[in-house]
Design a protein that fits this description.
The chain is mainly β and about 120 residues long. The chain contains no helices and 11 strands.
Amino acid sequence: QVQLVESGGGMVQAGESLTLSCVISERLFSNYDMGWYRQAPKKTRELVAQVSRDFTSNYVDSVKGRFTISRDNAKNTVTLQMDSLKSEDTAMYYCNVLAHGSPLYRWGQGTQVTVSS
């Protein structure tokens, strides 16, 4: 069973940075697109960044220019660099393997990001 293990969250002040990491035990990691999602309290989970198997990245408008997604196929790791954080970035962050743009596996435990203004 594929496991998704997120880490790197924390509590920061607005304007600061955090780096999230996700290790995925998918044997065919390099064949898939990968994504970072977030879910704020009382809101639906949203895809904020994705990186394709050919390393093309896309972002939701609210994080463009501030977040950077990357992948390391040798380490089965997806990273989300978050700069200039805002209070509205406060959420639980999750990663997943994407298949036709949708999450493929059961969610991991996530990592909490809290930004105070």
